[in-house]
Design goal:
10 strands; alpha/beta; elongated; single chain; about 20% strand; five-stranded mixed beta sheet
Length: about 300
């Protein structure tokens, strides 16, 4: 008989939020793979549980090397419990490799549902919750971060991100640049903890606030792109949308077609707006050159 892999959600802040099954699984598992064994020890003490099984570390640095060992234990019939520092394993946390390995071997994978920073932040954000997408952590490099944001500039679903506190101001500034400074958002800090804070406002306003320094675990919720009709989009906005798509790697022809489809407009109208903007830029450059020559 093969074993069972159990993904266990752990509290994102308040230990009282731990699901009742978590204590039972911690006590019964043959192997507990923990992202941080010290935090696991504090959790078991808070829950008054003494694990009977073997405890091993399983974090980003050793995930690839330790996965085969844990997969072998599962194949041998062990019940392996996977826990991360907070929330659900494999969701922006270690775990995906082990889940994939277990599935490949035909091993049962189940979960102990628990608190979720994504759903908690979404629920308290005050933004639409009927449709959303989780984008995880953005790239650390500025150029890659902007490129990733441009990919979802026209996304109409609410967006949810994780971010490190020391990068929050740069991320919000980049979001304001790509999505617009007035796009509504909520920065959810230290959810379920003593100093929980939900700061709501436009992206530009939030970026200015974050520039003063923010601490704690951060989840950012951003309103989706507005569903605008043809009458609500002027030529400048059409040109801006085309340029955002071009900067993300699309060819101009495809970018114009996509913007036209999103706006419900003929492609010729968007094309004309792009050409007019280009001609205006060239005229401005010629005028600037003449003025410079005259001054000289």
């Amino acid at each position: 008989m093969t074993g069972t892999l159990v993904l266990a959600g752990t509290p994102i802040g308040d230990v009282a939020d731990a699901p009742p099954r978590l204590a039972a699984e911690l006590a019964a598992a043959d192997v507990i793979a923990a992202e941080d064994t010290r935090r696991l020890r504090r959790l078991t003490q808070a829950l008054d549980v003494t694990p009977a099984g073997r405890v091993v570390s399983y974090f980003e640095g050793n995930e690839a090397a330790r996965t085969p060992e844990l997969a072998d234990a599962l194949s041998g019939g062990a019940r392996v419990l996977l826990v991360t520092d907070a929330g659900m394993p494999s969701v922006s946390d270690p775990g995906y490799r082990l889940v994939a390995a277990a599935v490949e071997r035909g091993i049962t994978v189940t979960a102990v549902p628990g608190p979720s920073a994504v759903l908690t932040a979404l629920a308290v954000s005050g933004l639409p919750v009927d449709r959303f997408c989780f984008e995880g952590f953005l790239p650390r490099k500025a150029g890659e971060r902007l490129s990733r944001l441009r990919e979802v500039a026209g996304e109409r679903r609410t967006l949810v991100y994780f971010e490190a506190p020391h990068r929050l101001d740069d991320t919000l500034a980049a979001m304001a640049e790509v999505f617009g400074a007035d796009r509504r958002a909520a920065v959810c800090r230290e959810l379920t903890k003593t100093y929980e804070e939900v700061r709501r406002g436009g992206l530009g306003e939030l970026a200015a606030w974050a520039a003063e320094g923010v601490r704690g675990e951060i989840t950012v919720v951003v309103e989706g792109a507005p569903e605008t009709g043809p009458a609500e989009l002027d030529a400048a906005e059409l040109v801006r949308r085309v340029r955002v798509r071009e900067e993300a790697g699309e060819r101009r022809k495809e970018a114009i077609a996509a913007v036209a489809a999103d706006a419900g407009l003929p492609k010729r109208e968007v094309f004309d707006a792009v050409v007019a903007a280009k001609n205006a830029e060239r005229a401005a450059e010629r005028d600037a050159g003449r003025n410079a020559a005259g001054t000289a």
